[in-house]
Write a structure and sequence with these properties.
alpha/beta; Rossmann fold; 6 helices; 17% strand; binds magnesium ion
Length: 181
């Protein structure tokens, strides 16, 4: 299988980094050791990236906005160091009990990204480890990849969703999409 995507929407926790729950300090933010290898493969196939993340820890009062800003700066610097084109990071602070159109699986953050950066949704892929990531991708009519890191195994076992791709992790997924052995 060989597919190329112009824009890759990335979930954050459980997809790019370990998900201990409500990360409020940059010291507790750790990328998986395969994340940048995966993103470099996608990048060499011409993909840009956009992170789309639900961060209800803000509405819950567990994460302060300035703490999340520090984490976002760390992520942006890490992408820069790896020469990867990160268009933006969008986060939704909403509590799941009172979600706006921006909280995944709603598509508000994606629509904002498309408006801000003027790309075509058609040639996009959404990668995530949870129901909301795949459902959002389905609503947008784009390809989706469920990674079996984070909550992915549990989500996959439920058989409630039908992602375009299911992969052990984002690196295995990247190789499979790009036809690399
Ligand atoms: Mg996640």
């Amino acid at each position: 299988m060989k597919k190329r995507y112009k824009t890759i929407f990335l979930d954050r926790d459980g997809t790019l980094n370990f998900d201990p729950g409500y990360i409020s300090n940059v010291k507790n933010f750790k990328f998986y050791n395969f994340t940048f290898d995966a993103l470099k493969l996608f990048n060499s196939a011409g993909s840009n990236f956009c992170i789309i993340t639900n961060q209800s820890g803000i509405a819950r009062g567990i994460i302060k906005p300035n703490e999340l800003d520090q984490i976002n700066d760390f992520i942006k610097n890490s992408f820069k160091k790896n020469k990867l084109n990160l268009l933006d990071i969008y986060y939704c602070p909403d509590h799941p009990d009172n979600p706006s159109k921006f909280r995944k699986p709603n598509t508000g953050m994606f629509e904002m990204a498309i408006k801000d950066h003027g790309f075509e949704i058609k040639s996009s892929l959404m990668i995530g480890d949870n129901f909301c990531d795949i459902i959002a991708g389905n609503r947008l009519g784009i390809d989706t990849m469920l990674v079996l890191t984070g909550k992915g195994k549990e989500v996959n076992n439920s058989k409630k969703i039908k992602p375009t791709f299911v992969a052990k992790n984002i690196l295995v997924g990247a190789k499979s999409v790009l036809g690399i052995k």
